[in-house]
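--- STAGE predict ---
source: upstream dedup step, 1 unique chain passed
mode: sequence only
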Amino acid sequence: MSLALKLALSPLLVAQGLWTRRRTPRLPEAEGDREGEVGEGGETLRVLIVGDSSAAGVGVKTQDAALAGQLTRALAQQACRRVRWQLVARSGITSAEALDLVRDVRPAPADLAVAVLGVNDVVGQVPTHRAIAAREALADWLIANLQVRHVAFAALPAVHQFPALPQPLRWIAGADARRHDRSLAQWAATRGSLRGDVSHVPMPVPLGRQVMAHDGFHPAEPVYRACGELLALHLARRLAPPRPTTTGDPR
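--- STAGE serialize ---
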């Protein structure tokens, strides 16, 4: 997206942004416990979920129907383990603010962490390099302070499909989100290849009014279920032991 085009459209984009904020209902975060255990098995897997409104479950009534419930149930089933989970999330936070939040809360140690962030970086026009630096700082803190072995960063959603956003705001915001996500994926691939402690999880989940909350901006249960299953599959694959390699005739 060229800067010149964004500047040319800026009066219209500002007006549309203000109009969208006024008309979009403010939905509450999902109710329910923000920690618990699910599944069965001899070994317990500790999982921390960090993020913004999508991690907090805005768009559904309970955490059981939100991302935390969907992800942890699917992970317990796919990994055949008991999952002890904790959710640290707040609506409206950016990637930088997520680090402030976990520092304040200081959650229990975890084996794996899932970060669901980025839309508010796009909305707040946070430069891409600053958003990536904030995610790296978050990963570093979780690894250094909570014993986290791996942080999985969920891809940004398809903002260009959000029903709440009028055109051309939807198109511009969608292009910004895709740019942020490409940078996130590139950073995670580079660091992951060197250290193996972060990853980027694609979220090819189509969005539309029929699968989103009535505000047209947050997921409804079908999206949370699909995203939870994708994240669980990603984490379960990381837990699988590597296949043994053969180097010729063992005799």
